[in-house]
Amino acid sequence: MFRILANGACLAALALACHAAEATEAEQCRAVRMAEPGWNDLAFTTGVANVLLGALGYQPQSSVLGINVIYEGMKNNDLDLFLGYWNPAMVTYYEPYKKDGSVEDVRVNLQGAKYTFAVPTYVWDAGVKDFADLHKFADKFGKKMYGIEPGSNQLMMDAIADPSLGLDGWQVVESSEAGMLSEVGYEIKEKQFIVFQGWAPHPMNTMYDFKYLTGGDKFYGPNLGAATVTTQVRKGYLQQCPNAGQLLKNLTFDIDIENVGMGYLINDGMKPEEAGLKAIKLNKDRLDTWLAGVTTFDGKPGLAAVKEKLGL
């Protein structure tokens, strides 16, 4: 009887050891390579992911890269994930990688977003309410429209190239999100004409009095560029790193948390990880959903570990 019990205990111990081994991610999954294009909404959400992954025992790395570079990086196995596929604004960027299967969708992580051309309300009142109105005021705009980081303004360039809009000779002024918004603030103060990339979620919607232009369906999609944001990974990542993949399947946001979180970056000068940590501490009830079925890198209960690590 003793021998039977001993054998049974050994088998049980072996089963537990095997289960722990299965629950532990492969070593190649420890480093999680992320990127975002320098947009504050994606800097914030990537910051949240960075904090959660770090608290789970991973070694997250985040880079700021052009959108085209991000997709090439995932295709070439230099990057693992991207939290910022704006659909439909990025369709033309994503299409080749979707077609060859090198980049895969995980889930929609934000609904209710929008993205299209915008002008100050006084410009709207002057008659610029649609993409088709821009050419009528070309001199007032100086034949310029203001974009963000190079590599993120293709839709503006596509609009300029469309002969139906009469924008021949216009140029896109590329700088950065912060640079564009600084210019917007200056031109509004001076009551000058300016057209720029506008989107929500973003604190700009409460910082400045502006309107979104109609007529951009061909470029940004219907309903003023109504958009969703999707988490994407390189091919095979979810299978190779299923625990990190489970976190990505769980991780969703909403307009309110992003507007506030982006304010930490823009108005308070926080770094993305600092903003992510503050948002997590103020929304700790979300951890139950975000960490459902997720363990630490070495297989321990994820929710308890994150709360302990972050002092929650």
Task: Offer a few descriptive terms.
312 residues, alpha/beta, D-Maltodextrin-Binding Protein, domain 2, 2 domains, five-stranded antiparallel sheet, ABC_choline_sub-bd, transmembrane transporter activity, Glycine betaine/proline transport system substrate-binding protein
Question: How would you describe this protein?
Answer:
The protein is built from 17 helices and nine strands. It has two domains: 27-113 and 227-310, D-Maltodextrin-Binding Protein, domain 2, CATH 3.40.190; 114-225, D-Maltodextrin-Binding Protein, domain 2. Mean pLDDT is 92; it is low at 1-22. It has 312 residues and is α/β, with parallel strands linked by helices. Helix content is 47%, strand content 19%. Strands 3, 4, 7, 8 and 9 form a five-stranded antiparallel sheet that branches. Strands 1-2 form a two-stranded parallel sheet. Keywords: Signal. InterPro entries: ABC_choline_sub-bd, ABC_Gly_betaine_transp_sub-bd. GO terms for molecular function: choline binding; transmembrane transporter activity. One of its GO terms (cellular component) is ATP-binding cassette (ABC) transporter complex. Residues 32-275 form the ABC-type glycine betaine transport system substrate-binding domain.
